[in-house]
Amino acid sequence: MAQHAILRTALPLGERLQRDSYTLHSISNCMAGAYLSAWEAAMDEDPIWELERRFWLEGICVYEAHLHKDARMIFPGMGILDRSAILDSLRDAPRWDHVDMCNRQLADAGNVVFLAYVAVARRGDSHPYKAFCGSTYIRKNPGALMIAHQQTLMD
User: Fold this and answer.
1) Exposed e or buried b per residue across 81-93, where buried means at least 16 C-beta atoms within 10 angstroms of its C-beta
2) What is the pLDDT of residues 29-71, one digit of tens each?
3) What is the reported pLDDT for 154?
4) Neighbour count for residue 139 (Cβ, 10 Å)
5) Can you tell me the distance from the alpha carbon of 136 to that of 53, in angstroms, rounded to the nearest whole number?
6) Which of 1, 6, 26, 80 has the CA that lies 20 to 30 A from 34?
7) Rounded Cα gap, residues 24 and 144, in angstroms
8) Strands 67-75, 144-153: parallel, antiparallel or unpaired by DSSP?
């Protein structure tokens, strides 16, 4: 078991990305390193990362199901939004076609989890949107609820 974990984490990033259906081009936009660390590989196993991806790519149903009743989000140019304002802002907003989450970090305090990462997202042929992101989740059985999210634009 331990040998399998070591071998899995030593795979070059390109091989890992092919297995995970990413592309080298999109990861180069994130300025990722050549190899995933054992720590990053372990984070791939946490379903909260998949939920985070769903918030970017899927519609309002994900927000209604997985956004805490007291949630707050902070967006550049929009300010601080409560749950109601978040849902209202999504009703006519297009979702992202693709998002890469790089330089991922996870702080797990049991029932509270904080994700920090760099997002590179695209809609159609537009220029990529690049931001430092942080999300806080409260684990529920089953699943999790997002209670906070913030994006800070990258230069």
Assistant:
1) bebeebeeebeee
2) 454 443 444 444 444 568 999 999 999 999 899 999 999 999 9
3) 95
4) 15
5) 14
6) 1
7) 30
8) parallel
- Using the Cα atoms of residue 54, residue 56, residue 58 and residue 61 in order, give the sign of their dihedral: positive
Q: What's the 3-state SS for the chain?
A: CHHHHHHHHCCEHHHHHHHCCCCHHHHHHCCCCCECCHHHHHHHCCHHHHHHHHHHHCCHHHHHHHEEEEEEEEECCCEEEEHHHHHHHHCCCCCCCEEEEEEEEEEECCCEEEEEEEEEEECCCCCCEEEEEEEEEEECCCCEEEEEEEEEECC
Residue indicated by tokens 């956004």? 67
Quote the Cα angle for 13-16-21, to 5°.
Answer: 115
Amino acid identity of residue 44, one-letter, is D
Name the amino acid, one letter, at 76: P
